[in-house]
Amino acid sequence: MFTRTPRHDRADGYPAARSVLISAWAVPVLIIGQFAMVAVIPVVIALIGTLRDARLRPLRWLAAALAVAYAVPLAIWRLRSEPAQSLSKDISPFLAALVVVAAVVLAVAHHLLRRRYGTGSNDDAAAVQSETNTSDARAGELG
Question: What number of other Cβ atoms are within 10 A of residue 96's Cβ?
Fold first, then answer.
């Protein structure tokens, strides 16, 4: 006996990509916290997440800009004849700020995309209220 697990797709069409959103917010935290080399993981997750999900098409350019902004200091660090021991020690403050700004812009754009699709707890409450009203009306018709 096989049962099908119900999918809980959002009817409002919001592209719910939590991995992209969490990764976008993790990049500035890691860069500012002097863990710049570890930030490669959320940068890659954000880029791949936006490229794989067709619903996140408006965020693709921002994710690509974040990847390029991160790749520039990484390439400078690797191509130096005598690089520092870590990327955090070698990255210039201007390039670090550029990566942080690109990540914050991606995260804020994701939040604005969510708002544009009109998700929120008010919609859920209105749906529950309308179901309650229709069940009351049906009970009145029957009785």
Answer: 19
Let me know: does 143 contact 65? Beta carbons within 8 Å: no
Do the Cβ atoms of 99 and 73 come closer than 8 Å?
A: yes
CB 30: neighbour CB atoms within 10 A? 21
Give the residue, 129 or 42, on which the prediction is more confident.
42
Q: Are 14 and 119 in contact (CB under 8 A)?
A: yes
Q: What is the mean pLDDT of residues 73-87?
A: 88
Amino acid identity at 14: Y
The closest alpha carbon to 74, from 101, 98, 51, 104, belongs to 98
pLDDT at residue number 12: 47
DSSP letter (8 states) at residue 86: S
Determine contact, residues 37/87, Cβ cutoff 8 Å: yes
The amino acid sitting at 115 is R
Q: Which residues contact 59 (CB under 8 A, 6 or more apart)?
A: 20, 50, 106, 109, 110, 113
Query: Under 8 Å CB-to-CB from 96, ≥6 apart: which residues?
Result: 31, 32, 36, 73
Angle at 135 (CA atoms; ends 129, 139), nearest 5 degrees: 145
